[in-house]
Design a protein that fits this description.
The complex is a heterodimer of chains A (227) and B (137).
Chain A (H helix, E strand, L loop, with lengths): L2 H10 L12 H58 L3 H75 L7 H40 L9 H9 L2
Chain B lengths: L2 H11 L9 E6 L5 E6 L7 E5 L3 E10 L8 H12 L6 E5 L2 E9 L4 H21 L6
Classes of the chains: A mainly alpha (227), B alpha+beta (137).
Chain lengths: 227, 137
C-alpha cells in the first residue's frame, strides 16, 4: 500500500487522536534502516562500476594495440612475400594468428565489461530512484507525525491556559477594530500635528507684523482718543 | 535552526523589522517544539511554528468544522482549491477538524525568510477569513 493511502486510512480511521502515531516508531526505524542499506548498496555498486569501467578501458586499449600490431605484421608478411621469402612470411603469419587469438579474447572481455557496466548503471539508477522514493515516503510519515504532535501540543496549551481558539469571524472583527482604533489614533495625531503647525505659523506671522494683529492696550487707547 | 533562535530573533526585532510588525513569541511544551508567534494587533490569530527534520512548518488556524455552513461546505472547499495557487507562500489544509493555512520552509531558510513567511501567512489568514465569511456561520 502506498504511504499516501496509509496516511489517509490512518487519519480517516481516527488514528489522528493525540498520542497515537500514524506509523509506529519501530517501523519508522526499520524504514530508516532500509534507506541506509540502500545508500550503502549504491555506494558499493558505484565502486564496482568504476572498477568495471577501468577494466573495460584497459581491454579497449589493449585491443587497439593488438589491432595495430596485426596490421603491422600483415605489412611485414606482404613484404616477405614480395621478397619471395615464404618461410619468413609463414613465421609472420603464425605471429598474426597468435595476435588475432589474443585480440579475439580482448574483444570478448571488452564486450563483457561493457555489458556489466551497462547493467550496473541501470541498477544504480533504479536504486537511486528507489532511495529518493523511500526518502519522500519517510518525510511524509515524519511530517504527518510532527504535525500531529504539534497539534496536540497546541491544543493542550489552549486547554491548559483556559483560553480557546476564537471563532474566525469574531477574531477578524476584533483585529479589524484594533486596526481601526489604531488608524483613528494615527489620524488624530496627524490632525493634532497639523494644528500645531498651523498655530506656530500664525505666531510667526504675527511676530513679523503680517496678518491680523492682536490689539494692544496702546492701540485701543489711541483709537478712543481719536473719537 | 531551532524555535528558540527564531523566537529570540523575532522578539528582538522591534523597530529593526522590515515587515512593520512587532512579534511576541512563546514556546509551547510538548513532544515537539512549537513556537506560538503573536503579532501585535493580531493576537487573535497566532501563527504556530514547528520544526521537523527537513522543514519548518508555519500554521494559522482559520476556523473549525463547526463554524462552516453545512450546505455551503462543498462550495467553500472548491473556493479554497481555486485560491490555493494565487495565495502567496501559503496553502490551505485541514488538521483534525480545523481548516488552516500553512507554509512550509526549508530548514535552511534565513531568519528574514521566516519573518516574511509569518507575516505573509498572517496577512493571508485575515484576507481568507474576510473573503470566505459567507461560508461561515
Amino acid at each position: 500500500m502506498s504511504i499516501f493511502k496509509k496516511i489517509i486510512t490512518a487519519i480517516r480511521g481516527g488514528a489522528s487522536e493525540a498520542g497515537e502515531a500514524i506509523v509506529d516508531a519501530n517501523s519508522t526505524r526499520i524504514f530508516e534502516q532500509e534507506i541506509r542499506d540502500s545508500e550503502k548498496h549504491i555506494t558499493i555498486a558505484k565502486r564496482d562500476l568504476t572498477e568495471v569501467m577501468a577494466k573495460q578501458m584497459q581491454t579497449a586499449r589493449e585491443l587497439a594495440q593488438l589491432q595495430t600490431s596485426i596490421k603491422e605484421h600483415e605489412g611485414y608478411a606482404l613484404q616477405a612475400l614480395e621478397q619471395g621469402n615464404e618461410a619468413l612470411a609463414i613465421e609472420v603469419a603464425e605471429k598474426i594468428g597468435e595476435l588475432e587469438i589474443n585480440a579475439a579474447d580482448q574483444q570478448q572481455a571488452n564486450e563483457s565489461f561493457l555489458k556489466s557496466s551497462d547493467r550496473l548503471k541501470v541498477l544504480i539508477k533504479k536504486s537511486e530512484r528507489q532511495l529518493t522514493d523511500y526518502k519522500r515516503q519517510l518525510s511524509m510519515v515524519k511530517t504527518t507525525d510532527s504535525v500531529q504532535k504539534a497539534t496536540s501540543a497546541i491544543t493542550s496549551n489552549f486547554t491548559a491556559s483556559n483560553s480557546k481558539l476564537l471563532n474566525a469571524k469574531d477574531s477578524l472583527d476584533r483585529i479589524k477594530k484594533k486596526q481601526a482604533n489604531f488608524d483613528d489614533k494615527l489620524k488624530a495625531a496627524e490632525q493634532l500635528d497639523a494644528e500645531n503647525d498651523d498655530s506656530s505659523l500664525k505666531a510667526k506671522l504675527q511676530d513679523a507684523g503680517i496678518g491680523a494683529q492682536q490689539s494692544s492696550a496702546q492701540s485701543i487707547l489711541d483709537r478712543l482718543k481719536n473719537k | 535552526m531551532n524555535i528558540h533562535t527564531i523566537a529570540t530573533h523575532l522578539n528582538q526585532l522591534q523597530d529593526a523589522t522590515e515587515t512593520g510588525f512587532s512579534f511576541d513569541c512563546t514556546p509551547i511544551d510538548g513532544d515537539i517544539d512549537v513556537l506560538q508567534v503573536e503579532m501585535v494587533g493580531r493576537e487573535e490569530i497566532p501563527i504556530f511554528l514547528s520544526i521537523s527534520d527537513n522543514q519548518i512548518l508555519c500554521i494559522a488556524y482559520l476556523w473549525g468544522e463547526d463554524e462552516v455552513k453545512a450546505d455551503l461546505k462543498a462550495n467553500m472547499i472548491e473556493a479554497m482549491l481555486e485560491l490555493n495557487i494565487p495565495m502567496p507562500l501559503s496553502s490551505f489544509a485541514k488538521v483534525e477538524d480545523k481548516y488552516v493555512v500553512f507554509g512550509a520552509l526549508s530548514i535552511n531558510s534565513t531568519l528574514d525568510d521566516i519573518e516574511l513567511e509569518v507575516v505573509t501567512l498572517s496577512d493571508n489568514s485575515l484576507e481568507v477569513i474576510s473573503a470566505m465569511e459567507t461560508y461561515l456561520k
